[in-house]
Amino acid sequence: MFYGYIGDSRTLNDVITGLLQGRNGHLELFVNRYYLSLGVENGLITSFNCDLDTFKKGNGNFYNILVYCVAEMLANPEGFFAFYETPASDVKKLPTPVSPDELTIQATIVRRELDEIMDKIISPYAIFRVTSKEKDVSFFEGKNIIEALFLSEDQAVGLLRKIKDLLVEGKLDIYEFREGDHSPEPEIDYVMEKVPLRKVNVITILDNLKTGQFSGIAKISSPTYTVNIFYSNGEVFALYPVNFDLFEFLLSPDRNAELSLLSLDGALVKFLALRYLSRPEINTVSSNFMEISKLFLGLSKYKRDALLLISEKKGDRYIIFKDGKMIASLQETEGRYNFSNSLRFEEPYFVSLYFYRKVENIASVAYLFMINEILSIFMKHSPSKINSMILREAVRYPFLVFSEGKFHLVSNPDEDEEIKLLNLLSFLLELSTQEIGPAKQEEELEFQLRPFKDIFRVLDVDKFLKKAV
């Protein structure tokens, strides 16, 4: 087995042409966010697999798709490779085996032709409109470049030159742009950065985030703590650390703390939250003991949703995979996020891997807040009885600890634990009704929760509490 890093077009060409010479097996590439597997027999490429959606369709010109995929890799030739001396699986057989030299030559020419065409159509996923009545031009109606390459019997170079000429002559035009297999990275915007809470009304700001459909992270920081509040489309879905009493904080904000607002696509925010709220499959393993290329290729090949965290001296790198496709790479340095185009990591670095799973915990935080509010009412009326009951109940909830008259979360609750919290809340509400009567319970709860009315509104707490009553 051979594996390593690809940093330029020369290295990519050397890997394809030099490594495959006279060999049997398969070469896997992850370059420019594309995944490609080449099946090799006696040094000739006989089959391939790639992550273009077109590849999954019926019969077509798969040789053109192979050349196109390598040409796209040449646009930004950085990534990883691995060669295995075993047959490839789940591949498309090529009608005629092709030599690695021929493939790289064809891909280099196609890359040049694509660059000239992109000046006119911007994206390979732009849909063509035919403006000529000529019969041979009608083939391109309603297709993009990739579809045309797949459905045409012509070789890629000749077809692209024909498209270029038709565009120049005005016989082809563009009428629609569609999102492709590899979408451009969304924007990062710091709406607010390190603003002292004594200068703003934090409730008003959170209210604006809700009505403005904000997606991103609200970060509250001080010299002794940092709190992250995760948003998606105006809704708070998670809080870290989980043992932070957000309700009490918002009622009486720490005036020495500072607020920063990072606006980011909601889907990416849920991946970033994994770092704080999920258990890693690989936890801070040194690059001295693992090969990073295998992770990139494996996540692509097996189409995983995952967050790959690379910790370097200069900061953390967050690399996000969705359905096996790398959709974003963010660099965090001194608390600031920026997109990063490089896949070169500074040795030594540490690797953590998180597979995507549900990390929403705001419902659990709301349930726990209400549990503690009901407990405080119990303490006023029957402290000895409630203390003995708490000791019995605490044993059943290993993700909770009871301290100073309150329950606290010690880990981020999973879905089963969230249900247990809801059941505990329902149980305490029913017990409270029996002990002090429904009228007294309602009166005391209303008195205790009245100061939190606006907080409940901006956090949408009512929708969670309806499940408990």
Structure description:
The structure is a single chain. This protein has three domains: about 1-180, no CATH class; about 190-355, no CATH class; about 360-469, no CATH class. The protein has helices at about 10-20, 60-75, 100-120, 145-150, 155-170, 200-210, 245-250, 265-270, 275, 290-300, 360-380, 385-395, 415-435, 440-450, 455-460, 460-465, and strands at about 1-5, 25-30, 35-40, 45-50, 80-85, 90-100, 125-130, 170-175, 190-195, 215-220, 225-230, 235-240, 260-265, 280-285, 305-310, 315-320, 325-335, 335-340, 350-355, 400-405, 405-410. It is elongated, with a radius of gyration of 29 Å. Helices cover about 40% and strands about 30% of the residues. The model has no long low-confidence stretch (mean pLDDT about 90). It has 16 helices and 21 strands.
Based on CA atoms alone, the radius of gyration comes out at 29 Å
Number of beta strands: 21
Overall average residue pLDDT: 90
Compute the separation of the termini in Å: 60 Å
Structural class: alpha+beta
Query: Helical segment tally?
Result: 16
Strand content: 25-35%
Helix content: 25-40%
* Spatial ordering of strands, largest sheet: 1-5-2-3-4-6
Can you tell me the overall shape?
A: elongated
What low-confidence regions span 5 or more consecutive residues with pLDDT below 50? none
Taking the sheet with the most strands, its summary is: 6 strands, antiparallel
Number of domains: 3
